[in-house]
Design a protein that fits this description.
six-stranded mixed beta sheet, eight-stranded mixed beta sheet, alpha/beta, 589 residues
């Protein structure tokens, strides 16, 4: 903690983006004021059944919402802005500052989510400085990345200047002519940078990351050699790549049909802002290209990551209503699979090939370059900014560690470098950097239901359903502690060599044994003939016994749904006339 009487320390609290790829979210706090930097999402793993997106745990911000002075956005990728509509449903953000393209993309998201009135969007340009609260001045510094209108930020605070790189690479020949403002970085380095927080995604890759322009000649060659229709897929947010593809379509006299909502939105916003320049006549709707010669058609589509509902995946599965693969089609994957998506991508490629397409993919083709800097980019960033302290961010653990080693090789003392985790509270003063606390830093899962958030116990039930199936047991029990009829047993997704009749017999025996041995614990008799039954307690005991039997006999752990029913009609006591009420219960376990 800061010493008594000294100026307050700056707290830096990453809530996402460390030891992982995605959901980049960071909190800066000083003098009871909070500045948010980005709020991204990630995509679910295979075990997150029914989950659409993954968000960081925002408990800390919900509890400190009164301190939030605003947010700064570095660029428009989903892993940096995708979580904002969900967070605005939980707390207000007075103002969000960001680049024009990111703000245009975000504006549509907020309107669709019905939260546009929970904040004010303000667009900023290169070298603009904005104030948030009394403690933060933020300067926007143009950088180069795979999306247009991307920025590094210099955050001026009472303890010193913190530079947050955002996602970046150092591209000396950018497609849009907007160069990285290295001069401004060097100016800050000359004046003194207290701490650098820098993107670590390609920290393990030697050399410089190639320029986005390097893919142009390779795509040009592939497009010119395609004998029939071209289907091209890339990231919808890769505005520079889309610009190259559209330029080549015009050069080779092909018309373009755009398929996929995110691709349509990205191109529309980029054209409105001037990041993509092409004539309206270049584009044609799908129905209008059927009559054209196949060598005059280019279909630009989403699905480069094998996303289940994307246009290209539906085409590969034969499920797209308007596009079917034809013999002689060329499909170009101008993107590499991000970690976790490889299997989905290769499955899509296989299906396209089986239908007769010539599929062009892979790093050796030279049709994709990363938007993230490699080791030499990182060294140049460190050399220009010359920070006193260093925090590697945005990457998995091995990437963060390697980036820390690179920083040390550039002369930053090891004691001035911290490899931290989501939720760590970094306290930064002019003379020290320490991890002083921890805040909640788990995940929040969102599906398409009305409530949105998926609770842990629901996800666990879904995982058990997927792994071991479900067994439903319906049992009717009378007030005498006996089964009214033989229990009904239903199995779904349960793999077992045991016959259903045998399993039903074991279920019946288990329930009868429990009622015989434990009935008196749950049924209290009165002298007048009245019986008071603790049905909830009995339900719990039956559930335990049945689960134990199923694990023993099936050697698996299926989800158990126990339906227990007592007599349908109220029963009047013979001596008092009091009624014993009907009870029906259902438990899933």
């Amino acid at each position: 903690m800061s010493k008594k009487g000294s100026s307050p320390a700056l707290k830096i609290i990453p809530l996402g983006g460390l030891h992982e790829i995605g959901k980049n979210t960071c909190v800066f706090e000083i003098n009871d004021e909070i500045l948010l930097l980005d709020a991204g999402l990630a995509f679910p793993t295979d075990g997150m059944h029914g989950v659409n997106i993954v968000l960081p745990d925002m408990t800390y911000l919900r509890e400190n919402r009164h301190k939030i002075k605003g947010m700064i956005v570095t660029h428009g990728h989903e892993d940096h802005i995708g979580g904002i509509p969900f967070h605005l449903k939980q707390f207000d953000i007075p103002t969000i500052y960001g680049p024009r393209l990111a703000m245009n993309l975000l504006e549509g998201k907020l309107e669709e989510a019905g939260v546009a009135d929970r904040t004010e969007l303000r667009r900023v340009g290169p070298r603009e400085i904005v104030r948030l609260g009394k403690s933060f001045l933020v300067e926007y510094i143009r950088n180069t990345h795979s999306i247009a209108d991307s920025f590094t930020v210099a955050i001026h605070t009472p303890v010193g200047v913190v530079i947050h790189s955002g996602d970046f690479k150092i591209d000396h020949t950018p497609v849009d002519g907007e160069h990285y403002d290295l001069q401004k970085l060097a100016e800050h380095g000359e004046k003194g940078v207290l701490c650098l927080m820098s993107d670590s995604t390609n920290a393990e890759v030697p050399g410089f990351t190639p320029s986005e322009s390097s893919v142009y000649p390779n795509l040009d060659r592939i497009f010119s050699q395609a004998p029939g229709r071209l289907l091209v897929t890339t990231f919808a947010s890769s505005i520079h790549r889309l610009n190259i593809i559209l330029q080549l379509a015009k050069k080779q006299d092909r018309v373009v049909s755009v398929v996929g909502r995110s691709m349509l939105n990205a191109i529309a916003h980029a054209r409105n802002l001037g990041y993509i320049k092409c004539e309206d006549s270049l584009f044609r709707p799908l129905h209008a290209i059927r009559s054209l010669p196949e060598e005059k058609v280019l279909i630009l589509t989403t699905g480069s990551q094998g996303e289940p509902m994307s246009a290209l995946t539906r085409i590969a599965n034969g499920e797209h209503r308007k596009i079917k693969i034809r013999q002689g089609d060329t499909v170009v994957f101008s993107a590499n699979p991000i970690p976790g998506n490889t299997i989905a991508v290769v499955n899509t490629i296989d299906k396209l090939m089986m239908q007769g397409a010539n599929v062009i993919y892979g790093r050796h083709q030279g049709i994709h370059v990363s938007g993230h800097g490699s080791q030499e980019d990182h060294k140049l960033m460190l050399a220009l900014t010359r920070p006193k302290f260093f925090l590697p961010i945005h990457g998995e653990h091995r990437m963060l560690v390697q980036h820390a080693k690179t920083a040390e090789s550039m002369g930053i003392p090891g004691e001035n470098i911290r490899v931290i985790d989501n939720g760590d509270v970094i306290e930064l003063t002019p003379d020290s950097i320490e991890v002083v606390d921890k805040v909640p830093s788990g995940i929040e899962l969102v599906d398409s239901s009305r409530s949105g958030l998926v609770k842990d116990e629901v996800l666990k039930e879904r995982q058990r359903l997927a792994e071991d199936g479900v067994i439903t047991v319906a049992a009717a029990i009378g007030f005498n502690g006996k089964l009214v009829a033989e229990p009904s047993v239903h199995l779904r997704g349960v793999v077992s060599s045991i016959e259903r009749e045998q399993l039903q017999k074991w279920v019946c025996e288990t329930i009868e044994d429990c009622l015989s041995d434990r009935w008196t614990e749950f049924a209290k008799s009165f002298g007048d003939g009245e019986v008071d039954v603790d049905w909830t307690g009995l339900q719990t005991q039956l559930e335990r016994d049945l689960k134990r039997m199923l694990r023993r006999e099936l050697q698996t752990n299926p989800l158990l749904v126990l339906l227990m029913q007592t007599p349908k009609e109220p029963v009047k006591s013979a001596t008092t006339g009091r009624r014993r009420t009907r009870s029906t219960a259902k438990v899933a376990s």
